[in-house]
Amino acid sequence: MNYEDTVRYDRQHVWHPCSQEKDYELQPPIPVARGEGVYLIDKAGRRYIDGVSSWWVNLFGHNHPRLNRTLKNQVDRISHHIFAGFTHEPAVELARRLSALTPGNLSRVFFADNGSAAVEVALKMSFQYWQQSGRSEKIRFVSLSDAYHGETVGALSVGGCDLYRKVYQPMLLETYQARGPDCYRCPYGLHRDSCDAPCFETLEKLVQEHRDEVAAVIIEPLIQCAAGMRIYPPVYLRKLRVLCDVCQVHYIADEIAVGFGRTGTLFANEQAGVAPDLLCLSKGITGGYLPLSVTLAGEEIYQAFYDDYQSLKAFLHSHSYTGNPLACALAVEVLNIFEDEKILQQLPARMGLLDRYADRFEALPQVGEFRRCGLVAAVEMVADRSRRTPYPWQQRRGYKVYKKALERGALLRPLGNVVYFMPPLTIPEPVLEELLETALQAVKEVTAC
Ligand code: PMP
Fold first, then answer.
1. Measured by CB atoms within 10 angstroms of the end CB, which terminus of the chain is less buried, N or C?
2. Do the domain assignments include residue 302?
C-alpha cells in the first residue's frame, strides 16, 4: 500500500485512540513505515524524532538489535501458551528479577497485558484482601484530582481528569478524591525543591476521616503525567507511606508511566525511600515492543489469598494473554540492557541538557514554567505569566505546538497547554538538543499571538 492509500483506507475504517476523528480532516494520520533508534520514518521517508517515546513506552529506541534478536529467538520457541497450570522461564526470570529490583519486599508478581489492567488488578487485590482479612467494610478507594490510572471502568473511577471521565461519571465506582499537588500553582507559595509538602494535608484528612472504609490510596509517584507532567517532591510519598501505615490502608503505586528509569532512578519510589503495598508497572517494561503489565504484591497480601480451594479465597482474575512469553522475554532483556549498558548512569548528562534549556524556555513571555524530573520535562504555556492564568483550553495551544513540531520533524504530544518531552532514555544528546530547539521555536510561534 502506498502512502496515500494507507491514509485513505485508514480514514475509511480506523478509529484512533485519544483523538477527535474530525481533526484528521486537517491533519491526517502519518503512516509509519519503520523505526530507527529515536526516529519514526514514514512511508515518504520523512523522519520524526519520537520525543514522547511513542506514548511513554519506548526506552532504548525503535528497531533495537538486542530486543529484535530476543523476540526472534522467543518466536522460534513459543509465542504464547496458557498461563494457568503452566509456566515458562521468561516469566519466572522476570518475576524473580522484578522482585529483587523493586523497592521493599514485593515478592509476588501477577501478570496482565496493559497498564489499566494492572490497575484493575491492584484495586481488586486490595479490595479482596480486606474482604478476606476481617475488614469487609473497607471497600473504597482514594485518589488524587487530575490523576490518570487508565481508561477501563475501575481505573477510570480512580482517575481525576475530567476530560477522560466526566461523561462516564454515572457508570463509575464511588470513590474519594483529594486535591493533588500542583507545584506550579502552589497554594502555599512554596517551591517543590524545598517544601515539606504541606499540601499533603488534604489527602491526610480525607484518609483519616474515612480510614475504616478505605481499602487503598492510589497515586502516580513523583509525576502526575496525564495531568500535564505535574512534578511533585518525594516527601509527599514519604508522608503517604506513614499515613497508610497508621490508617491501615494500602498504598498502591502506579509506576506505569514513571517506572523504568523515566525519573532518573529505576523506580520513582526509590527517591522517597519508600515501598508501596502494591506496585503497577507496564509501558517501558518491554522497551516499547509488546503490551505487558505486572502488579507486584508483598507476602502479606499474597497469603490472604492462599488457602484450600474450598475457602474460595483465590484471586480469580485472568486475561487470555497473561504472562505472554514474547513480552516476558523482552522484559528480561530490557533489564539486561539497563545493567549491561549502564543506562541509568548515562542519564545525568541528558538531564543536564534539559536543565540548560529551562532558562531559554522560561525567557519566553508566555511560558509559565519549564519543569523537569529525570528525563521527563514539560513546558506550561500561560495566557498571563504573572497570574499563572491558563490559556482557554478551546484555543488548543498545545495541539498547535504539536502540529508545528511535526512539520519540523519532531513528535511532541500536547496535554492541554502543556507540551512535554519523554524521549527514549538513550536519545543521543545532539538529537535531544534538536528536539528542544524544535519545541522552543514551535512554542515561540504558537504563543506569539
Ligand atoms: N497509569 C498511568 C500512570 C498511565 O500513564 C497510563 C497510560 N498512559 C495507564 C495507567 C494506563 O495504561 P494503558 O494505557 O496501558 O492501559
1. C
2. yes
